[in-house]
């Protein structure tokens, strides 16, 4: 258990990358970790698009990022992973209406975190990115209309020596038995 906690403490959002190719076996290791994530009714809604092609990555950086938050480091990253959801009507629409819980978002979060933790075990840096234009990403990568793009994850060898930012004490975000 201590090894896991050390892994989680070590994993930070990387915003500086070496210009070094990421081998397919390392990417596949991360995808394998993601595939083992639990999901509502075992629907496994996650879909990952691994973008290594420089022209496509450049197009994402130039046309699909929202303005106002510069991410020049994203232009150096050797891999952009586009995290998508293919939802099921019963589990992800009907059940979500009844419960008010968007199960596919939970499922994608778990699978994505499995992915980034697996990357960390291989000395690869990652950063979750939510500052993008979904329609542009879909257009650039020919993603069908029924697929939802939920996140981008940068993936590469870290050139960043940043340590984990200070985290809140457990008592600051935890309640016991009731909210008080």
SSE topology:
Elements: H1 2-10, H2 24-35, E1 46-51, H3 54-63, E2 79-86, H4 89-99, H5 103-121, E3 125-129, H6 134-141, E4 147-156
Antiparallel strand pairs: 1-2, 2-4, 3-4
Helix pairs in contact: 2-5, 3-6
Please describe what this structure looks like.
The model has no long low-confidence stretch (mean pLDDT 92). The protein has a single domain (17-159), classed as NADH Oxidase, CATH 3.40.109. Helices cover 38% and strands 16% of the residues. The chain contains six helices and four strands, in the order H-H-E-H-E-H-H-E-H-E. Helix 2 (24-35) runs antiparallel to helix 5 (103-121) and helix 3 packs antiparallel against helix 6 (134-141). The chain has 180 residues and is an alpha+beta fold.
Provide the CATH architecture. 3-Layer(aba) Sandwich
Overall helicity: 25-40%
CATH classification class: Alpha Beta
* CATH homologous superfamily annotation: NADH Oxidase
Short description:
Strands 1-2-4-3 form a four-stranded antiparallel sheet, with helices on both faces. The protein has six helices and four strands; from the N terminus they run ααβαβααβαβ. With about 180 residues, the protein is α+β, with helices and mostly antiparallel strands.
């Amino acid at each position: 258990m201590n090894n896991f906690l050390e892994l989680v403490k070590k994993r930070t959002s990387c915003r500086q990358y070496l210009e070094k190719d990421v081998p397919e076996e390392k990417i596949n290791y991360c995808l394998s970790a993601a595939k083992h994530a639990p999901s509502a009714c075992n629907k496994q809604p996650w879909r990952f698009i691994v973008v290594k092609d420089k022209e496509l990555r450049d197009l994402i950086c130039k046309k699909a990022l929202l303005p106002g938050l510069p991410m020049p480091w994203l232009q150096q990253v050797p891999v952009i992973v586009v995290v998508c959801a293919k939802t099921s009507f019963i589990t992800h629409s009907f059940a979500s209406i009844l419960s008010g819980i968007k199960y596919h978002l939970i499922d994608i979060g778990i699978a994505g975190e499995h992915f980034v933790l697996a990357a960390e075990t291989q000395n690869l840096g990652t950063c979750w990115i939510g500052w993008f234009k979904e329609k542009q990403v879909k257009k650039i990568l020919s993603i069908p209309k029924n697929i939802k793009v939920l996140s981008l994850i940068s993936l590469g060898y870290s050139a960043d020596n940043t340590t984990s930012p200070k985290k809140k004490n457990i008592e600051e975000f935890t309640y016991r038995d009731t909210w008080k």
